[in-house]
Write a structure and sequence with these properties.
Blueprint lengths: L22 H49 L4 H12 L1
Helix pairs in contact: 1-2
């Protein structure tokens, strides 16, 4: 059996070149890899974008907390409790 269709086959019969023993398995694995990489890549990009915004917000909150502690608006015990809550 040929791996690539010869001139005796019409273009709509080319899929028969892959109908050998391992052809369908190779195509199935390739399809799973393609969709896995595509979906995984999109998921990682979305998670990265969301985590960047979250880190900046918690940094801002921590800066405000430090300012309040420095001005004497809260005591050390309250500062430590709130800092732990922000870090979670």
């Amino acid at each position: 059996m040929q791996w690539w269709p010869g001139p005796e086959r019409s273009p709509w019969e080319w899929h028969l070149a892959w109908s050998g023993k391992w052809g369908l398995l190779v195509l199935l694995i390739a399809m799973i890899l393609f969709w896995g990489i595509l979906i995984g890549g999109v998921t990682l990009i979305v998670r990265l974008i969301l985590s960047l915004g979250r880190d900046r917000k918690s940094g801002d909150a921590l800066a405000i907390l430090k300012q309040r502690y420095a001005r004497g608006e809260i005591d050390r015990e309250e500062y430590e409790r709130m800092r732990k809550e922000i870090s979670l």
